[in-house]
Amino acid sequence: MWEEFISKATKLHSALKSALVAIAAFLDAFQKIADAATNARALVAIAAFLDAFQKIADAATNARGK
Length: 66
Known about the structure:
Metastasis suppressor protein 1, rod-shaped, actin binding, about 70 residues
């Protein structure tokens, strides 16, 4: 009984941790987009946008693997 509870709690902890990592990467990506749009031309902003989403994908992949 306790083993099952601990196992499920551990899985929940892992899922929440992964979600927080992905959310943090998502927010960081949009901050970079906003900074690039404020400080540079449109092409630089688009490049930052694509780079930011690549980082989100990488963070999500790494979070799932841990």
